[in-house]
Amino acid sequence: MDYFLNEEQLMIRDLARQIAEEKIVPVRAELDETGEFAWDVMKTLAQSDLFGLFIPEEYGGLGKGCLELSIAVEELSRACLGISTSFAANALGTYPILLFGTDEQKKKFLPDIASGKKLVAFGLTEANAGSDAGGTQTTAKLDGSEYVINGTKQWITNGGVADIYTIIAITDRSKGPRGASAFVVEKGTPGFSFGKKENKMGIRASATTELVFDNCRIPKENIIGKEGMGFVVAMKTLDNSRTGVGSQGVGVAQGAFEEAVKFARQRVQFGHPIITFQAIQHMLADMGTSIEAARALVYAVARFIDSGAKDVSKESAMSKLFATDVAMKVTTDAVQILGGSGYMKEYPVEKMMRDAKILQIYEGTNQIQRNVIGQALIKEAARNK
Amino acid sequence: MKIVVCIKQVPDTAEVRINPETNTLVRDGVASIINPYDMHALEAGLQMREAAGAGTVTALTMGPPQAENALREAVSMGIDEGVLLTDRAFAGSDTWATAYTLAKAIEHIGADIIICGKQAIDGDTAQVGPEIAEFLQIPHVAYVRKIDSLKDGSIIVQRLMDDGYDIVESSLPVLLTVVRELNVPRMPSLKGKMAAKKAVIRQMKASDLKADVNSLGLQGSPTQVRNIFAPEAKKDRKMLEGSSEEKVDQLLKELAGLKCL
Ligand SMILES: Cc1cc2nc3c(=O)[nH]c(=O)nc-3n(C[C@H](O)[C@H](O)[C@H](O)COP(=O)(O)OP(=O)(O)OC[C@H]3O[C@@H](n4cnc5c(N)ncnc54)[C@H](O)[C@@H]3O)c2cc1C
Fold first, then answer.
1. How many Å apart are CA A202 and CA A35, to the nearest integer?
2. Is A315 a catalytic residue?
3. Interface confidence: ipTM more than 0.85
4. pTM for the full predicted model
5. Ligand 1 pocket test: which of A361, A363, A373 has the largest number of ligand atoms within 8 Å of its C-beta?
6. Count of CB atoms within 10 A of residue A98's CB?
7. Which of A164, A103, A168, A107 is nearest to A133 (CA)?
8. In what helix (H) or strand (E) does residue B38 lie, and over which residues does it extend?
9. Rounded to whole angstroms, how far apart are CA atoms A258 and A270?
10. H/E element, B103
11. What pLDDT, in 10s, does the model give residues A284-300?
12. Which residue ranges form the domains of chain A, and what is each CATH number?
């Protein structure tokens, strides 16, 4: 369908697609097997300016918005969700600085992020703080001109490969949710190390590790926003990044759908290509329809965010929820259409199905998205009464 | 350092078919691309500029007005300027006239290093690069697979040979033709693509060159194409079947029968 993208948006789509097809498709199966990080692809993405898409021009980026980022993420995800996760997590880690950083912080960090010289990670989750960020135990104590950080973050995308980490830590436990703050920690800071790389079901080309802080001292200027704003920073960050997860869903679903159509035209059983069977056609019809609906929602929400809307929690949660549920369904059905071949690693759909599962879990599980939407609906209803 | 890269717009042969009646290429509806070897030439030029931290890369092409698209694509990869040689007077040029015209344009632009792809995938002659060097009366090295060093007005390169490679040193200015092994051409960048959209492509006509008009285009072309045809397939062929051993046995018998053994 034509979404009336402008010339630059089409340019972004074409370039991301070219990179996906020429540089990602040929290596994705091997990266999935070995779990190696795709440094070569990251270098290509950097050279192509894609890391700077959503960063303002004054800091070396292209000054585009959520929609342009979504378009790029979708195209990369169509080829490999592991690689697109590394790319998208970069934006996730950058939003705290972009949305709440001081001009000095932006000048210091954003140009290297925009050029792709440095990757970024976002560290919120801990062993006792998953869906419930209130369980955060990592602490940051002001000591003279430095904060001293102690604690462990878990399952952090781009852990170890990133140079810049935006993390949430408790600065004043007595204040409850208002006692958390956000910080930037650079790789190489004494007292900051990484746990082992996780061995995952999918998105295996992405790096996921623990971040371990052991009396890690950072300059006090590295706080993002004010003390106590940590959860606000985290929530606003997720509000902005969730459509990105939605576009990952659209992309991987599109990739799996195309494989299913291709296979169904070639595979002959009972004397006919299986695509001539109504049962297969109907599955494909449902897949195609739900992908288009997901894409329309993701683009609409991305445009809504780019319009400067104040509160986008509900809509961004909707786009993440819907598009990632579609991704899980479509990739599962693609495996079904390929039958036994779909279960084999010679075909890319089993990987797509394994990869797609993460989208319903990270950046807030889909149950949590429904909670967010539900709470927004309650608030709206109360307001309209 | 001034680097000029000569590029050619060619039909994407992956998509080209031959018209069985006329035996000519069917070019209708076939996408045009930058000659793949020229992509390596562009990459080489860009890498030289980056290594030197200074200098310019100019892409030069001779062709119809739509060849401008090839130059815009080169701009999107990061070159500084595109120059299009386009004029009816250039039409029908063979490799000699093409090289002459490009050489005249290069004299006009000025260059320390000229880089060409080893050959164009539509004509496959591999003549134009070395011919340009002859017209300019400068040294050339063909089939460059690696640049070992470039400094102080001299260059050391590896020239791919059938049985290995030569190491060749040359003074500048020099013309190089390059093979695929040299590098991996970069993807365009977004900033490059945006610049390419706005870029002004400099056009040059015959009258802009200090050229002998009798050496241009069809008039200046000693090669005349009489006929293009696909060689007829010889019919007296025999396919051997079976396991490798059976095939070898059969082959020996056949060869003995033909009194080759
Ligand atoms: C590969 C990977 C990469 C990740 N990358 C990052 C990263 O870069 N940065 C980061 O900070 N985190 C990251 N995470 C963490 C991720 O965001 C969390 O895993 C996620 O938020 C869920 O937390 P949990 O795993 O602790 O699940 P839990 O919170 O323990 O949830 C378990 C189950 O209970 C359900 N549940 C929990 N609470 C409720 C509720 N109130 N109502 C209904 N259902 C509920 C959940 O939906 C889920 O089904 C990553 C995780 C993975 C697996």
1. 9
2. no
3. no
4. 0.88
5. A361
6. 20
7. A168
8. helix B36-52
9. 23
10. helix B95-109
11. 999 999 999 999 999 99
12. 7-118 (1.10.540.10), 121-228 (2.40.110.10), 231-383 (1.20.140.10)
